[in-house]
Amino acid sequence: MKSADESFKEGNLKILRKEYEGACLSFTQTIATDPSNSAALINRGYSKHMLGDYFGEIEDYTAALAIEPDNLTALFNRGLAMNQVSDYSGAISDFTEVLKITPNDAVALYHRAFARDRKRDFNKSMKDFSRALELDPALKPFYKDDDFRSKQFRKYVLTLIENTNAIVKNPKDYLAYYKRGEAKKYHYDTVGAISDLTQAIKLNPECREAYLERGGARFSNRKYSAADIDYSKVIELNPLSTVEYIDRYIADHKTMENVAKMVDLAEVYAAIQAIIDKQLTVALSGREAVKSRMEKRKGARADFTNSLEILKSQTAEENIS
After folding, report:
1. Long-range contacts, 105-110 (Cβ 8 Å, 24+)
2. pLDDT digits (tens, 9 = 90+) for 150-162
3. Share of the chain above pLDDT 70, in %
4. What is the value of pTM for the model shown?
5. From CA 203, how far away is CA 180, in angstroms rounded?
6. Integer-rounded Cα radius of gyration of the chain
7. What is the phi/psi pair of residue 161, to 5°?
């Protein structure tokens, strides 16, 4: 009977010759002689994969991980096999463990994105694919036009690819950074959005839209002081609507230390809730009224106070009628 070392070497040679059935037999002999040989289990799992025995390979990788819980090869390959058998939760778990050890593994992010897409967790899938594409712009979309489940995600991925390629060709293309950042923001990757939009602003400090989008991303991340700076810059570059003054006002007042000087935020939120839920028509006309009546901009607090007073007045008139 061959020793564990001899049968292991024989199995590896058979893999090189693509004799996968023979390789499985050799590694089985190795494991019989040395049950703790995790390398033999992993290589037999790979051989089973090449034979299409995905459930069998999962068993081998699981056995290897019982011996070496942090074995990257076993974790990664089992994740691939989990995707093959449509165990997407298992795949996500395995690739998450891989990424704990190697956070910048673009391929692991790519395959976790695939698993999350198949579970219809599109937002997290978008974030994973976005990060994977940044690490490796050569990656291709994993979906097919005829079976893709989210037009929104497809558009997002294409936007990422188009603008990432533009950045690779021209690192000073501020518009590509802006478009990629905007796409990330609207698909909940606010950290990635802030990074791209900041680069766009560095390349073009007059890009008003980049300040506006970055302000929204920072606000979502509760970076209120930073959001206030961005909204202020937007107003400085080009005065915009009352809604944007309201955004700036909220960001500004959440950073104030003197609470006594604050307008009651409950009143602010109540007014905004009324705009959204009950008085859309009144809110739209009120916003236009504020814009038409403002002769001078006296800062975000004054702008918001004026718009709020208009809204209160219109609400009272509506209740009377």
Report:
1. 106/131, 106/132, 106/133, 106/135, 106/136, 106/139, 107/132, 107/136, 108/76, 108/79, 109/135, 110/136, 110/139, 110/142
2. 566 667 777 888 8
3. 68
4. 0.56
5. 14
6. 28
7. -65, -45
Average pLDDT over residues 256-267: 45
68: tokens are 């070496």
The Cβ of residue 236 has, within 10 Å, a number of other Cβ atoms equal to 11
CA dist., res. 255 & res. 163, Å (int): 35
Smallest CA-to-CA distance from 303 within 235, 206, 214 is with 235
Residues 34, 42: contact at Cβ < 8 Å?
no
Q: How far is CA 142 from CA 110, 114, 181, 198, in A?
A: 8, 7, 22, 29
Split at pLDDT 50, 70, 90, the class of 298 is very low
> In the chain, which residue ranges form alpha helices assigned H by DSSP?
4-16, 20-33, 38-50, 54-67, 72-84, 88-101, 106-118, 122-135, 151-169, 174-186, 190-203, 208-220, 224-237, 242-253, 265-277, 280-293, 300-320
b or e along 282-314 (b: 16 or more beta carbons within 10 Å of the residue's beta carbon)? bbeebbebbeeebeeeeebbebbebbbebbeeb
pLDDT classification of 209: cutoffs 50, 70, 90: confident
Q: How many residues does the chain have?
A: 321
From the CB of residue 250, how many other CB atoms can be counted at a distance below 10 Å? 21
Give the residue from 77, 1, 66 showing the smallest Cα distance to 37.
66
Q: By C-alpha distance, which of 61, 103, 64 is closest to 79? A: 61
**Pair 28, 47: CB distance under 8 Å:** no
Contacts of 106 (CB under 8 A, 6+ apart): 131, 132, 133, 135, 136, 139
| Token pair for 221 | 């991340």
CA–CA gap between residue 228 and residue 7 (Å, rounded): 68
Place of tokens 């509760």: 222
